[in-house]
Description:
Layout: E1 6-7, H1 10-23, H2 28-44, E2 53-58, H3 62-76, E3 80-85, H4 94-103, E4 109-112, H5 113-116, E5 126-130, H6 142-152, E6 158-161, E7 186-190, H7 202-206, E8 208-212, E9 226-228, E10 252-257, H8 264-275, E11 280-285, E12 300-303, E13 313-316, H9 324-335, E14 340-342, H10 345-352, H11 354-362, E15 367-369, H12 373-379, H13 384-389, H14 391-402, E16 405-408, E17 414-416, E18 422-424, H15 437-450, H16 455-475, H17 485-503
Parallel strand pairs: 2-3, 2-5, 3-4, 5-6, 6-7, 7-8, 9-18, 10-11, 10-13, 11-12, 13-14, 14-15, 15-16
Antiparallel strand pairs: 1-9, 16-17, 17-18
Helix pairs in contact: 2-3, 3-4, 8-15, 8-17, 10-11, 10-12, 15-16, 15-17, 16-17
Amino acid sequence: xxxxxxxxxxxxxxxxxxxxxxxxxxxxxxxxxxxxxxxxxxxxxxxxxxxxxxxxxxxxxxxxxxxxxxxxxxxxxxxxxxxxxxxxxxxxxxxxxxxxxxxxxxxxxxxxxxxxxxxxxxxxxxxxxxxxxxxxxxxxxxxxxxxxxxxxxxxxxxxxxxxxxxxxxxxxxxxxxxxxxxxxxxxxxxxxxxxxxxxxxxxxxxxxxxxxxxxxxxxxxxxxxxxxxxxxxxxxxxxxxxxxxxxxxxxxxxxxxxxxxxxxxxxxxxxxxxxxxxxxxxxxxxxxxxxxxxxxxxxxxxxxxxxxxxxxxxxxxxxxxxxxxxxxxxxxxxxxxxxxxxxxxxxxxxxxxxxxxxxxxxxxxxxxxxxxxxxxxxxxxxxxxxxxxxxxxxxxxxxxxxxxxxxxxxxxxxxxxxxxxxxxxxxxxxxxxxxxxxxxxxxxxxxxxxxxxxxxxxxxxxxxxxxxxxxxxxxxxxxxxxxxxxxxxxxxxxxxxxxxxxxxxxxxxx
Length: 510
C-alpha cells in the first residue's frame, strides 16, 4: 500500500502524533502544520490579487493553533489576513498559546470573536477553518454553530485544517444528533489521510483533499488496514487476450433474478457482464422467461428453476422478488461451489431467513455481497442510521459474519474483507443515484469473477470502473441529472479496455 492511498483512524493518528511530539522540539508539529496550510492557501489563491483578503477561524484546541500560525504566515507574506480568535487565549493548549503570542507581533489583524464578532458577512477571498479538528466528540453548538453557518454562507474558497469542523474523521458522519459541519472546498489534512474525508458526508464537506505529512519519519507509521481504492489495487489482474482465445476462455456468468414485472434488472446485469468480457452470459428468470433480449440477443434467457448452477460465476438477486420460488432457487444457488455475487433481493431473502444466512456463511467459494445501507441494516438486524453512523465498522462486520467480500454502496463505497482490510472508493458521483445502477455493478463483478479475478480484486475493480464511468459521462455532459443505468455499460467497456491496454502485461496470457 502506498503512502498516497493509506488511511488512518484518529486513534492511529494520535499514536503517531504523540510519538513524534516526544522526539521533536516543542511547537515543531504546529509550525509545520501552519506552514503547510499557508503554502496550500497560497496555491488556492494563485490567481487572486496580491492584496487578497483571508480570514482564519481559530478554535480552542491545537487545530486553532494551526490556524493562528497559518494566518500569521499569510499576513507576513503580504496578504490582508484577519484572525478571528474563537476561544479564550488563556485556555489554549501551550503550543497554540505560543503561536498566538508570536502572531500578536506580526501584521496579522486579530479579532476576539466573543466581543467583536461582526454582524455582517465576512468579506474575504479565502476562509480557513481551524475551529475544531479530529478530537471533536460533541455536536457544534452556541457561538461555534453560528460561526459554521457564517462560513458555509461564504462564496469564497474555504480550506479546512485537518478535517472540516464537525465532521467525524473516522466515519464521515456529522458529529452529534443535531450537529453541523463546515462545508469546505478544500481540506489539508495533517500527518496522514483519514477515512471520514472520503465516505458518507466526507466528499460533500471535505472538498478536494490534500495530505501534508509534516515530514514525519516513515518508521512512525504502522501498516494501515484501510486505503483508498485505486487502479493499482487491481491492475495486476488485467490481461490482454491471446489470439488463440475462444468464448470458453473467459468464463460463463449466470444472472439469477427477474420475478414477474422485474425482468429489467437481470437484463441490465447480464448486458453489463457481456460488455465486460464474460464469454457467455445466461439470464435465469424467476418469473416469465423472455425468448431473448432484442437489444442484446447474445444473452441466453432461461428459467431459473431449470438452470444448472454448478459452473461459471453466479449473480443472484437483481429483480428476484421475495416469493417462495425465489427463496428455493437462492437456497440452491448458495450450495453451488462457484463464485457468487449476492445483490438486491437475494440479500433481503438472506436477511429474512436464518437458514439462508447459515448457507451463506458456510460457503467456501468466493463470495461478494453488494448491499446498500438499508440492505446492510437488514443483514445486521440493525438500522440504516446505525449502519451509516460507522460505515467501515458495518462493512467489516458483514464481511466477518458472511465470510464474504462486501461492497457497502453509497458515497465513498466501502469494500471490506474478512481480515478487516478496507478500501474506500473515490470514483462516482450523484448520477449513480438512479434505478438500475446496482444491477450494472453486480454485472461487472460477475464478469470479472468469471474471468479469474479474485473476489477482493474483482470488487475493487468493479466499484472503481462503475464510478469512473459515471464521472466520464458527467464530464461529457450526460449527467448527473437524467443519466440512466444502461448508459453506463458502454462507458465501462471502454474504460476496461483502456485500462487493460495501459496496464496489462502482453506476455502473460491467461
